[in-house]
Design a protein that fits this description.
Elements lengths: L8 E11 L29 E8 L10 E2 L2 E3 L9 H4 L23 H4 L11 H17 L4 E3 L17 H13 L3 H9 L1 E3 L5 E7 L10 E10 L12 E7 L1 H9 L7 H10 L5 H11 L6 E2 L2 E5 L2 E5 L26 E7 L2 E6 L25
Parallel strand pairs: 1-8, 7-10
Antiparallel strand pairs: 1-2, 1-4, 2-3, 2-9, 5-6, 7-8, 11-12, 12-13, 13-14
Length: 376
């Protein structure tokens, strides 16, 4: 773990997409089919997959009642040298057999680029962050994404985990919730490996200053696609409800104030609306992951009756994100990369830049539905 961080705690999140069969009872997606740069989805299109969302407890100290992707803070055990024995067949390969990233080291987000050996851990950061995402997903939802150690092979396609009986899962989940280091013990005794190869690097979001209380996180987002919806149970502590829905259904429920999601979830779900096919999402995330990603620290600014969340690449995004307090109003739409927040349930994406590292632009709402006052 990087204990030198002053403002953020390291964390990892898993965007878990699971296939489901399309049929007469399937719900139509309410967001449009991609067209042009901004994109829009035809109302009649269907997704053949759902995304797992978890509702945080009202007693949570960070974003209470929010619907989030599973994930949480890195634990020291995620960097434990004991993982070297668990992953012994892969320790001869860089990063335990994970594919390399083309992005130059100097432009990598510090979350991924930090030399963990200098911090006392032999486990590479990209491995430990994936272990964290898988462990937290198991703790919060009961979904265990692992493979049999006896198979000892790399994984690239849509994944199905090896079978572990429900009684064993319940026992181990309780133990892991009591102490995260029991995740190592579970893998050793059941002869399984956390399926780090099925997690594809997607994005890196940092909690903006003074937005969600005093807690701030430097979070790695990973994408994982599985063929069938796994059995899911909330932990009844931090998580009080779970649901599997298509990206467009989640966004529509957000607009209708049936649930609340934070801007990173809003942005990433809007990206996923470009794929109605799980196979297409899997192929894109697998191929794109080796390009790397950008570190995004939103800069929140008040403007009239709403707030603007500036993202890197926006023409007004400051070189020093701590120094910007206001912007002059202008009608120039070039170089925009921002989320305009009119109220907690009304977010509008304004994007005219090209994404880096071969990533996706989100699907945005038609221009006529956007507030003309939101152009800064």
């Amino acid at each position: 773990m990087n204990t030198a961080l002053k403002h953020w705690k390291e964390a990892a999140t898993l965007i878990l997409a699971a296939g489901h069969r399309l049929g007469a009872d399937s719900l139509p997606c309410r967001t449009p089919q991609v067209s042009g740069n901004t994109g829009s989805l035809p109302r009649g299109s269907l997704f053949d997959y759902h995304v797992l969302m978890l509702k945080r407890s009202s007693k949570s100290g960070f974003m209470p009642n929010a619907y989030v992707f599973p994930g949480g803070v890195v634990d020291p055990s995620d960097f434990s040298s004991d993982w070297l024995d668990i992953f012994k067949p892969f320790t001869g390969s860089p990063s335990f057999g994970l594919r390399g990233v083309k992005q130059p080291a100097e432009s990598r987000p510090p979350l991924f680029a930090t030399d963990r050996v200098k911090l006392g851990s032999p486990v590479p950061g990209e491995v430990a962050l994936r272990i964290c995402a898988l462990r937290e997903t198991f703790e919060e939802s009961g979904v265990l994404l692992v493979v049999s150690k006896r198979e000892e092979k790399r994984f690239k396609g849509l994944e199905d985990g090896c079978d572990v009986c429900s009684g064993e899962l319940t026992k181990w989940r309780d133990l892991v919730n009591q102490n995260p280091s029991n995740f190592i013990r579970m893998c050793r005794e059941l002869e399984i490996l956390p399926n780090i190869w099925a997690l594809h690097e997607w994005s890196n979001w940092l909690t903006p200053e003074a937005r969600y209380g005093t807690k701030r996180f430097d979070t790695a987002f990973f994408m994982c696609c599985v063929q069938e919806t796994p059995r899911t149970l909330q932990d009844e502590k931090e998580i009080v409800r779970f649901q599997w829905s298509t990206p467009s259904e989640i966004l529509q429920s957000y607009r209708e104030q049936q649930l609340w999601i934070a801007p990173p979830q809003f942005y990433e779900l809007s990206r996923m609306c470009r794929f109605s096919s799980l196979n297409d999402l899997q192929n894109f995330s697998y191929q794109r992951a080796t390009e790397g990603c950008q570190r995004w620290l939103p800069v929140i600014l008040p403007e009239d009756e709403h707030h603007v969340s500036l993202l890197p690449g926006d023409k007004h995004y400051p070189a020093d994100s701590s120094g910007l307090t206001q912007m002059e109003t202008c009608q120039d739409d070039s170089g925009l990369h921002r989320i305009v927040l009119s109220d907690p349930y009304t977010a509008t994406l304004q994007i005219t830049i090209k994404p880096k590292y071969n990533h996706l632009l989100p699907v945005v709402e038609p221009a006529e539905s956007q507030n003309s006052k939101s152009h800064l």
